[in-house]
Amino acid sequence: MVKHMTRNRRSFLKLAGAAIALSIAPLKLLAEFVRPEKALAATDLDGVFAQLGTPTDSDQIMLESPDIAENGAVVPVGVTSNIPGTSKIYVVIEKNPNPLAAAFAIPEGTEAFVQTRVKVAQTSPIYAVVEAGGKLYKTSRETKVTLGGCGG
Amino acid sequence: MAGQIRIRAKLEGDVAEVKALMRHPMETGQRKDSAGNKIPAHFITQVIAKMGDKVVLESQWGAAVSQNPFLSFRVKGAKAGDTITVEWLDNKGETDSGEAVVK
What residue stretches are annotated with the Sulphur oxidation protein SoxZ domain (chain B) (predicted)? Predict the structure, then answer.
């Protein structure tokens, strides 16, 4: 009986150890791209740009976003950059509680293009911010929201 | 790598257009349930995509990406038969993945 319990305890410890290893390992999911923690936590546009840097306007960024979104919970956004050396693309929704929605690192060999769907809390300019050669560029378009994306 | 992410990778010339659909509630942490209690934040924070062993896209997300996230990107130098994998990690340490063969 005592032997049995010892074995159970061992196997439990082994299992627990494996569970801990599993829960730690995925935190290293990304190879190189460090999470822009402060920019993601910023609560206004100035706060985001204070962390990322201030972008200059560029007509070499194509931002596809709807003029009017009936459902702010699902707004399709596409960004294409024609700026050589584009290494990052940021999607920023000015009037959201945390404007920076998503950041993408584009390695060489991947086109400077991403498409996703985001929540837009209220009518707001959407910014596509691009990093290329260590400099930041932006373009923006306003999306009118009929039904907010963060309500409930 | 048998996950729930649905991926399609379509070859056009030597570019693979990848479309991935993930399953996730993407809770912002700002919503309340009918009893007025805050629903805890639960959202994907990181997504990585690879073609074979090569990283082709890395992303860091906030909670503003929509529920059941969609992600599309284009990888140059692809050929039919290449394998695309996508994997995510959320703020609770949960992960999911998926893979597709370029066609």
Answer: 7-100
